Amino acid sequence: MNAENTLCIVVDIQERLQPVLFEAEYAAERSRIMIQGLQALGVPLVLTEQYPKGLGKTIPSVQLLLKDVPVFEKTQFSALIPEVKAVLQEKNIRNVILVGVEAHVCMLQTVRDIRALGLEVYVPFDCTTSRNPANKENALQQMRGLGAVVSNTESILFTLLGDAKHPAFKTVSKLIQ
């Protein structure tokens, strides 16, 4: 996994979902750290929004970080919509990092669909949640069963860094403190 063969999909971190999610603020903050770290490492990102007319736009604290990132609206639960699939193919992506909500619906279905393409999927457990914490835990188990790597923000960022001599090391280190 490196910046050239990896893409991050930010899945549905939206205004009307946040109030009903378990530990939503924590997951959103961890997602912000992940996004900033990936940007420092040069990893491309895309953003999906599930039916924004009903669920609102991406929350402002995340949206601020993603000003120049493609935003794709969707109604299907999986984030692997044609537009995202086109980005995966165009950039020759082999690894996908998923952050967002809900773990047991959109995230799980996205893992399933990306794994079906033969790509590796990394899900930082601290960057996802569900309304019910039991649903999140069950989803993470199912993701592992599908072959996804359930990890955490720090591990994924340091895997991408690979070496303390990496030019982004200090930036990433400051983010995770």
TrEMBL record:
Record-annotated Isochorismatase-like domain positions: 6-154
Pfam families listed in its UniProt record: Isochorismatase
InterPro entries to which the protein is assigned, alphabetical: Isochorismatase-like_dom (IPR000868), Isochorismatase-like_sf (IPR036380), Isochorismatase_domain (IPR050993)
Protein name: Isochorismatase family protein
Membrane spanning residue stretches: none
Species: Neisseria lisongii
